[in-house]
Backbone:
């Protein structure tokens, strides 16, 4: 499974203990020395600028040591759109230690902190979080997370792009608790069918789960506008002008794309993360966290409600340098402390070591974030077309146990086998009906049966890929929309699923999902920073895992009954 | 997932590239250019998973020659952008086909009439490329040069390549960039193989 060859050679004799240590999975991970001159450093670099800001005639004319004529387009965008001009000089002049203390101190309310952070420059924000150790960062996150109730997001993909699998796994994922589910493809042309499968499966599992399909930007937008998907996330931004230009983009082009989603009431967030610029060789000598803070403020300036960050697909880079995971925790905190929704990473294969994988998630799981994982693989990692996540289906029971151990809400729960089988079967049958209604390549009863009991894509009959691809193209050619899916579900007797999907679609008219950190509850109430604001104010306040939800999370696969220890409960 | 067998073949064999003169447009239609990056078989001697550059070249050239096609190795000195050097290499190639390779092993088969950021075949996961893959790449490039349509070399995927290799790849990338000599054009090179005693 691993890509590494064993280390060989004619080295001197090793102790037996060293041999055991050499064989530990953690030693398959890659680690490198820092190289600050090139930006290969997490967050402590002598080459990052010192904070400064100067305002003249209502305009920022100096930012972090550069005057306006020296600005690159990131500086310009941030100075013009992300920083509150009225408070910039006053807030940036505050001692960094005082701001860092406000972030941790429960007596400073979230709103009081926001009144300060909206006037800070990128270098000032870096200066503040550099003072904080990882426990202090977690304490800050606990208060600054925008939505009071934490949640989780899942990946639902298939190595064969099999829509039947995606529907069944989406239903199970929704039932297990993911508030958002996303998919992507091996063969991009399959996208319309897989996006339909994700939407239908999710609404079977739990009405109100939001879905998206990560694609190149034009198709992703089109699927969103047609109501086949409900939100978008993979709109990548970068911390240096050179990397931005490399992708034929600017902050303005990304902001324009964001407004296209907003114009249809579709939820969206940007994506960024530490390590991407140095990975592409254009970090311009700045630390990973400094560049990520520029991304976060760019997102803020573009007016999007949220950001997926936490290194994401470049996690191998901060993961390999000293203090890298502290920087990753800090970047999540910075997104939250400038009032953005934060979908906080933990979404890419990160380590060979189970201990490191678990430890990596603690700074997000323990304080809670808007989405602890911005992609927990709700399929086996071999089926994960996002190149593998930090957690997958094999980790479900471990995750549930850790939630129960620490009494923290990581967004998932244990679900009984009979409920899962029922949901998987129903999702496959609902998709079968929708495909028939839309005259798409048929789904056989054998496929439905396989979906009910399957683990991975290997457990399904092969589909006729060429017919599927023709069908996928016809979905685009015939301009099929979310409403067509609703009609197909209703016509085939899946009234409840049709109703669920119609209610999700209706949200784009009200625009409630454009609010920061919005998700839909099981009764279709939009839960966001507006009506579920994080009110943490110290011990005994804020979100507490208690009541009915805590009773749910006490359940595991095997718990011995206290009334009759010869049996198990659940 | 099979793992690359790093130094299993011909341990201790090294290669150096002796510059002959400026690379010009080839006239032989049965020629494939192998375009190598600034630090290949120079500052660096092996790929990210320790496949010696000598072995990489030996396999690529063998793959090309077994198709009855001629190989010409060209060193690029002013860019370490794989698409750029391979596209320029394709324009120098008599057949219009080029295999481009970076020091860490990332490889591409390019054709002169394609857009720069397109390709015939791309092998982006350098840790998964071993001797056998390089030979198949050479063979496929030669078949394209003959106007044939070979089956693409099977691509490999390993989700754990990221934690193992991502940061080292970044480091190698940065080092290779430091070896760029701006303004110096591509040169034809002669391969000088040497046996070292190290193995």
Residues:
């Amino acid at each position: 499974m691993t890509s590494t060859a064993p280390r060989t050679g004619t080295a001197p004799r090793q102790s037996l203990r060293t041999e055991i240590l050499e064989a530990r999975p953690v030693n398959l991970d890659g680690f490198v020395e820092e190289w600050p001159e090139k930006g290969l450093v997490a967050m402590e670099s002598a080459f990052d600028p010192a904070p400064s800001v100067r305002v003249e005639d209502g305009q920022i004319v100096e930012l972090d040591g550069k005057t306006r004529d020296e600005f690159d387009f990131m500086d310009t965008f941030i100075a013009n759109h992300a920083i509150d001009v009225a408070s910039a000089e006053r807030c940036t002049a505050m001692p960094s230690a005082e701001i860092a203390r406000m972030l941790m101190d429960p007596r400073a309310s979230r709103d009081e902190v926001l009144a300060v952070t909206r006037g800070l420059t990128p270098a000032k924000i870096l200066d503040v979080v550099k003072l904080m150790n990882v426990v202090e960062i977690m304490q800050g996150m606990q208060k600054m997370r925008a939505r009071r109730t934490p949640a989780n997001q899942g990946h639902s993909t298939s190595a064969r792009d099999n829509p039947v699998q995606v529907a069944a796994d989406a239903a199970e994922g929704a039932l297990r608790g993911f508030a958002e589910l996303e998919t992507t493809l091996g063969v991009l042309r399959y996208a319309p069918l897989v996006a339909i499968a994700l939407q239908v499966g999710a609404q079977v599992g739990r009405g109100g789960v939001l879905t998206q399909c990560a694609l190149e930007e034009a198709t992703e937008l089109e699927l969103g506008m047609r109501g086949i998907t409900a939100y978008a996330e993979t709109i990548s931004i970068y911390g240096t002008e050179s990397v931005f230009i490399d992708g034929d983009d600017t902050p303005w082009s990304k902001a324009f794309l964001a407004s296209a989603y907003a114009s249809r009431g579709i939820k969206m967030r940007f994506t960024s993360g530490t390590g991407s610029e140095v990975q592409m060789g254009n970090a311009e000598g700045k630390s990973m966290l400094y560049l990520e803070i520029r991304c976060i403020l760019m997102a803020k300036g573009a007016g999007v409600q949220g950001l997926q960050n936490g290194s994401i697909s470049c996690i191998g880079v901060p993961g390999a340098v000293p203090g890298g995971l502290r920087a990753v925790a800090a970047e999540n905190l910075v997104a939250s402390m400038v009032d953005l929704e934060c979908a906080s990473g933990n979404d890419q294969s990160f380590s060979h070591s189970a201990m490191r994988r678990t430890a990596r998630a603690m700074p997000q799981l323990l304080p809670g974030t808007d989405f602890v994982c911005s992609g927990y693989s709700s399929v086996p990692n071999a089926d994960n077309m996002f190149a593998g996540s930090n957690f997958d289906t094999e980790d479900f029971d471990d995750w549930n146990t850790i939630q129960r151990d620490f009494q923290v809400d990581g967004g998932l729960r244990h679900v009984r086998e009979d409920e899962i089988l029922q949901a998987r079967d129903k999702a496959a049958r609902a998709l079968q009906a929708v495909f028939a209604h839309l005259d798409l390549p048929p789904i056989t009863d054998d496929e439905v049966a396989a979906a009910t009991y399957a683990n991975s894509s290997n457990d399904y009959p092969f589909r006729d890929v060429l017919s599927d691809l023709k069908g996928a193209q016809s979905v685009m050619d015939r301009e099929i929309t979310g409403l067509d899916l609703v009609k197909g579900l209703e016509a085939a007797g899946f009234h409840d699923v049709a109703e669920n999907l119609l209610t999700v679609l209706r949200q784009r008219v009200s625009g409630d999902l454009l609010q920061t950190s919005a998700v839909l509850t099981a009764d279709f109430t939009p839960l966001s920073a507006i009506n579920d604001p994080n009110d943490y104010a110290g011990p005994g306040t804020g979100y507490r895992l208690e009541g009915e939800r805590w009773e749910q999370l006490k359940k595991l696969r095997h718990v011995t009954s206290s009334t009759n220890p010869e049996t198990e409960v659940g | 997932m099979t793992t690359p067998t790093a130094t299993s073949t011909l341990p201790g064999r090294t290669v150096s590239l002796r510059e002959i003169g400026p690379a010009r447009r080839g006239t032989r239609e049965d020629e494939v250019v192998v375009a190598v990056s600034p630090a290949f078989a120079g500052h660096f001697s092996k790929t990210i998973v320790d496949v010696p550059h000598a072995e990489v070249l030996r396999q690529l050239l063998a793959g090309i020659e077994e198709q009855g096609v001629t190989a010409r190795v060209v060193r690029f000195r002013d860019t370490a952008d794989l698409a750029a050097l391979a596209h320029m290499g394709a324009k120098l190639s008599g057949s219009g086909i080029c295999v481009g390779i970076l020091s860490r092993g990332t490889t591409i088969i390019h054709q002169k009439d394609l857009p720069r950021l397109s390709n015939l075949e791309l092998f982006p996961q350098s840790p998964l490329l071993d001797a056998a893959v390089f030979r198949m790449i050479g063979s496929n490039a030669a078949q394209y040069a003959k106007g044939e349509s070979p089956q693409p070399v099977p691509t490999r995927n390993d989700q754990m390549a990221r934690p193992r290799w991502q940061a080292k790849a970044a480091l190698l990338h940065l080092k290779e960039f430091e070896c760029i000599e701006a303004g110096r054009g591509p040169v034809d090179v002669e391969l000088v193989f040497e046996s070292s005693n190290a193995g």
